[in-house]
Amino acid sequence: MRLSKSLIPALKETPSDAQIASHRLMLRAGMIRQMASGIYAWLPSGYRVLNKIMQIVREEQDQAGAQEMLMPTIQSADLWRESGRYDAYGKEMLRITDRHARDLLYGPTNEEMITSLVRDSIKSYRDLPQTPYHIQWKFRDEVRPRFGVLRGREFLMKDAYSFDVDYAGALAAYKKMMLAYMRTFQRMGITAIPMRADTGQIGGDLSHEFHVLASTGESGVFYDAAFETGDALAETDVELFYQKMTSIYAATDEKHDTAQWAKIPSERQREGRGIEIGQIFYLGQKYSQAMNFAITGADGQRFFPEMGCYGIGVSRLVGAIIEARHDEAGIIWPDAVAPYRAAILNLRQGDAATDGICENLHTQLGADGLYDDREERAGVKFAEADLMGHPWQIIVGPRGAVNGLVELKRRATGERWELAVQDALTKVLG
Ligand code: 5CA
Q1: What percent of the chain has pLDDT over 90?
Q2: C or N terminus of the chain, fewer CB within 10 Å?
Q3: 227: CA distance to ligand 1 center in Å?
């Protein structure tokens, strides 16, 4: 992508209404624009990040045996009357009336819809287990939308739902999902901490929240250093993994038991702050019972399937990753989710040697390269590349260019190398 032709409207000024780093940086880097309170448009570079995050989430959900589908954003109120949550949900639900005076709503979550879909699609206990999921926009009419995409009204969520014949099956699904979550967040270059949580509006009696460590986080997190080193993720056996996550490497917040905390050897005890990026729930038969989803089991008896639900805040993750990975100059994208892998900075637009090298690099990098081909001062290009946070910057100046050399900069460490064009490219793609 050529920066001169792109719709990436970087801002020189710091927006005054943005209170925290990720919100300021997303606006300044031209990733998002607010269209109404808590409702954002995703501009090309922001949308590229959102897509990369979605793709990692998708691959790990598929790996865990979940199946992707897509449910609508608008739901019928009748579905929610069946579960009894239509009235209970309160003002956070955006209620809509259509031209025939039918009650609709913009879905804040999908337990009712998926329960009715699976209920109408499954005839036998042999069709279980099932774990459908989708990645879809949700709407919650938050009283105080704030912090940009961290607490929006419209936001993108991955929500998966498991249906099993018994408790053992539901628990196995829950454990498998926890493993998928930890792998998902690790692939995004962030440290996530699983913590026991309350079930709130959703229901059920077993739940974990996943928090990404960031100093600006809303919740206090007390955790085992094993989560930071990645040791906690080395286990591939689901049972052992779950045991480690929940009892060996403990984590807790201020509200929860200090007995758990005391179990961590003191040299591994860490305190930090976190942003909730996902939550998983064992739901039991709350929805299958309320919505009369019963099937005949192997023993000929009717039973209500055991359910679980598993959410990831996909759009929130964009802000949360920035909270965890930035400095005074701007964003520091982890490679896996960066909008562009490398920026190509042409320090003398119109010079035959620099133009030639930049065009060549741009072609070879394809969609993952952002070519700053504007008639701008070098200082402006450097500052903007740091702000946008590309993992690599390939700096092409006239002196090096005549000898076929470029300067390569790694955003995260500030390291610099002078390299031949092809060697720089190999390093960037490696
Ligand atoms: N039905 C379950 C999961 S399938 C559910 O709704 N869970 S939730 O309420 O915990 O939401 C899942 C995730 O969505 C949260 O962990 C959070 O990361 C994200 N989320 C929730 N509310 C917002 C919001 N207002 N803005 C951005 N992300 C949000």
Answers
A1: 82
A2: C
A3: 23
Tens digit of each residue's pLDDT (9 = 90 or more) over 240-267: 989 888 877 767 666 555 777 788 888 9
Give alpha helix (H) positions in 153-248.
167-187, 226-229, 238-243
- Confidence check: pLDDT of 339 > 80: yes
Distance 66 CA to ligand 1 centre (A): 19
Tell the residue number behind the tokens 């133009």, with chain if given: 355
Q: SS3 of 206, please?
A: strand
Give the mean model confidence (pLDDT) for residues 194-215.
84
Residue 43 Cα, ligand 1 centroid: separation in angstroms? 23
Residue 210 CA: nearest ligand 1 atom is: 16
Query: Looking at ligand 1, which residue's alpha carbon is closest to its atom 10?
Result: 279
Distance of CA 244 to the CA centre of its chain: 24
CA–CA distance, 182 with 210 (Å, rounded to integer): 9
Residue whose tokens read 């920035």: 322
Residue 112 has pLDDT above 60, yes or no: yes
CB 423 within 8 A of CB 430: no
**Taking Cα atoms as reference points, which of 101, 108, 104 lies closest to residue 76?**
104
| Best mutation site among 140, 147, 157, 178 for ligand 1 pocket (most ligand atoms within 8 Å of CB) | 157
Residue with tokens 């009369």: 292
The answer to whether the CB of 138 is under 6 A from ligand 1 is no
Closest C-alpha to ligand 1, atom 13? 313
* Residue to mutate (ligand 1; options 57, 113, 146, 279; most atoms within 8 A of CB): 279
Range picked from 235-244, 259-268, 332-341 for highest mean pLDDT: 332-341
Question: Domains, the chain, ranges and CATH?
Answer: 7-331 (3.30.930.10), 342-429 (3.40.50.800)
Instruction: Give the distance (Å) from ligand 1 centre to CA of residue 138.
Output: 9
- For residue 163, pLDDT over 60 is answered with yes
- 219 pLDDT above the threshold of 70: yes
Read off the tokens for 185: 């967040």
Cα of 278 from ligand 1 centre, angstroms? 7
